[in-house]
Amino acid sequence: MNFITYKGYPLVRKGNEMYFGFMSDPYVVMLQAGKTKKVRNYYVAQQVQLYLMSTDENLDPIEAIVKNGERDNLYDALDMAVTWLEKKNKKG
After folding, report:
1. At residue 14, what are phi and psi to the nearest 5 degrees?
2. Range of 30's domain?
């Protein structure tokens, strides 16, 4: 299976929603692109919501959210997500 990685973590996208991190770790980050703008022939996220979530399958999806935040672009959001994952999953 091929997937995109950023700083060693997999990133899986479906529509405006992305999951970042290893599902085998205790936590992953869900990212949701909000506002977008068209740059040449591409749509670029201008607002990204982040949700640090537990991967515990016994938790309700709302209860699984540990932390949330917002960034102005995908790269800043991914950098924040890396920091959250490294702290919560005790890596780095």
Report:
1. -140, 110
2. 4-88
Burial annotation 13-52 (CB, 10 A radius, 16+ → b, else e): eeeeebbbbeeeeebbbbbbbeeeeeeeeeeebeebbbbb
- Under 8 Å between Cβ of 85 and 27: yes
Asked if residue 82 lies in contact with residue 5, where contact means CB atoms within 8 angstroms, the answer is no
pLDDT in tens, the chain (92 residues): 567 999 999 999 888 899 999 999 999 999 998 888 888 888 787 899 999 999 999 999 899 999 999 999 889 999 999 999 999 998 64
Per the structure, the count of domains in the chain is 1
Output the pTM of the full model. 0.86
Cβ partners under 8 Å of residue 71, min gap 6: 47, 48, 50, 77, 80
Return the ∠ at Cα 33 (arms to 28 and 37), rounded to 5°.
Answer: 150
